[in-house]
Amino acid sequence: MDRARRIEALAVLQRIKEHELDGHAAEMGHIRAHQAQLQTELDKLQNQLETEAHIPSPEAAPFLAGFLKAIDTRKAFLLKEMDTLDKKAALIEGRLFETYTEARSNEAVLDKNLSEKRKEEDTAESATLEEIARNRYMRQMAKP
User: How far is CA 31 from CA 42, 55, 76, 88, 118, in A?
Assistant: First the structure.
């Protein structure tokens, strides 16, 4: 594959990797936002438990056990959901790291190819300028 086509292919691949990175980062952002919501709800439940888990009157005593059980059930559900999100986040972080590594490797190869292309162009331009200077010198020497 010639250098120009290789550079084009690497540039396309780089854009794809950057798009993948953006997608993974967005997905991670959604997970972190959901985790924050769950944590807020867990904090509210804990606060509710601390403020309402006492018996203000004898009539409320029979309802305390049900209240505590409902709080515990909801907390267990939220903690299970949080654990599921942690596992998803770990998988996405792995893919994010892998994609980032691939993107940086691709970027290094692309930069190397662009640098080599510039060197070739500079060498060709220098050769052209030398040829022009040589031709001019030869014409001047040929005149009496």
Answer: 16, 38, 19, 8, 44
Q: Report yes or no on 87 lying in a domain.
A: yes
User: Is 15 a member of any domain?
Assistant: yes
What lies within 8 Å, CB to CB, of 46 at 6+ separation is 75
Query: What is the DSSP code string of 52-79?
Result: H-S-SSGGGHHHHHHHHHHHHHHHHHHH
**Residue owning tokens 């990175």:** 21
Residue 39 lies in a domain: yes
Are 108 and 15 spatial neighbours (Cβ–Cβ below 8 Å)? no
The band of 52, judged by pLDDT with boundaries at 50, 70 and 90, is confident
First to last CA, the chain: 51
pLDDT tens for 22-32 read: 999 999 999 99
Domain boundaries, position 117: 3-65+77-142
Instruction: Kindly report the CATH number assigned to the domain that includes residue 41.
Output: 1.10.287
Residue with tokens 């009157």: 57
Average pLDDT taken over every residue of the chain: 90
Question: Is the residue at 71 inside a domain?
Answer: no
